[in-house]
Amino acid sequence: MATKSSWCSAAVHRPTAMTTPSSLRARTKRRRKRANERRDPMPCLRIETNIELDGGQAQDLAAKATSLVAESLGKSERYVMVMVHQGALVTFDNDQSPAAYCTLGSIGLEESQCPVLAESLCMFLETRTGIPQDRIYIEFKDLSRSMFGWNGKTFA
Known about the structure:
With 156 residues, the protein is of the alpha/beta class. It has a single domain (42-154), classed as Macrophage Migration Inhibitory Factor, CATH 3.30.429. Helix content is 41%, strand content 20%. It has four helices and six strands. The strands form two sheets. A four-stranded mixed beta sheet has the order 2-1-3-4, covered by helices on one side. Strands 5-6 form a two-stranded antiparallel ribbon. The chain is elongated, with a radius of gyration of 24 Å. It catalyses: 3-phenylpyruvate = enol-phenylpyruvate; L-dopachrome = 5,6-dihydroxyindole-2-carboxylate. It comes from Oceanidesulfovibrio indonesiensis. Its main location: secreted. This is L-dopachrome isomerase. It is found in: Secreted.
């Protein structure tokens, strides 16, 4: 007579019609795809500044910022969006010297990531645009999956 533990083990490992190798591969593939979609969605960096950049400078700033955001957040560049709005009317301390206001939003952005991101983004902007770090504000947003859409659906 089989003991209860050996009977349970046999029942757990017994293959069924539902657990064929191809169905397991398909299920694993779906899980990986969902995990990648959860990990990679949509950081968006918006840079608003009162300085004027020529077309090449603005494109270079956006391209380099895309790489920086993707690397900093561990996300694919494929999903990173960067918008550069230049020539805006921006005053800081009642002064119109070069300044910038940035917004970085991402699903799953953690508060613990923000100090490092603030440092790297401020250094990046100062190096690329000449805007002093003490004239740059950055707003960080952790976006809700259900309140953000892409490709005809939300991330929920």
